[in-house]
């Protein structure tokens, strides 16, 4: 029986996640499978992979063929490297301790790369948030300055209007006083 390691689709439209399964090649994509060995969620950044590495390695050793995407996942998780190193141990090119050391060194390097990517993503998100906050603060400051300027212009116009009204009132009072003085002056002078 030809056996494949492949993905089995689950989830909603445009938001799929996958189970990594061991299945007969003639079985439908989302149908019957022999064993589920993990899951793959490409919707997160970086993608979330949960894998039973020992079971995947066991199936590879008995001849199961991974699909292209599953091969890439197995490579990412180090299953293919472990198989390669076990082949070297079987041939006598390496000891088991050397193979384990090489695998652990590779795993540390891979974990460092993943953590760097996560930190880069979180830093980029924080920088974008900070830039958006600064831009919004700048816009708010410009709005406040424009509003203060408009308010100052309105106050200046109101003050000018009040001063004009006061000057006009003073002019009218002066004119009324002059008329009253003129009216009183001829009244006193008719006897002369």
From TrEMBL:
Keywords: Ribonucleoprotein, Ribosomal protein
GO biological process terms on file: translation
Protein origin, superkingdom: Bacteria
InterPro entries the UniProt entry points to: Ribosomal_bS16, Ribosomal_bS16_dom_sf
Biased composition (Low complexity): 159-168, 177-192
Key word Plastid present: no
HAMAP family named in the record: Ribosomal_bS16 (MF_00385)
Protein name stated in the entry: Small ribosomal subunit protein bS16
Gene name per UniProt: rpsP
């Amino acid at each position: 029986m030809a056996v494949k390691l492949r993905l089995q689709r689950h989830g909603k439209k445009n938001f799929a996640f996958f189970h990594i399964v061991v299945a007969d090649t003639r079985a439908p994509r989302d149908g019957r499978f022999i064993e589920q060995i993990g899951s793959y969620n490409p919707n997160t950044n970086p993608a979330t992979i949960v894998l039973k590495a020992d079971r995947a390695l066991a199936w590879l050793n008995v001849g199961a063929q991974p699909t292209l995407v599953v091969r890439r996942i197995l490579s990412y998780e180090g299953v293919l490297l472990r198989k390669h190193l076990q082949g070297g141990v079987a041939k006598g090119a390496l000891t088991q301790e050397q193979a384990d050391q090489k695998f652990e060194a590779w795993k540390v390097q891979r974990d460092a790369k993943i953590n760097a990517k996560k930190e880069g993503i979180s830093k980029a998100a924080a920088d974008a948030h900070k830039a958006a906050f600064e831009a919004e603060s700048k816009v708010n400051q410009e709005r406040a300055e424009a509003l203060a300027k408009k308010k100052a212009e309105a106050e200046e116009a109101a003050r000018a209007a009040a001063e004009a009204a006061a000057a006009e009132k003073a002019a009218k009072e002066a004119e009324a006083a002059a008329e009253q003085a003129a009216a009183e002056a001829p009244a006193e002078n008719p006897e002369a």
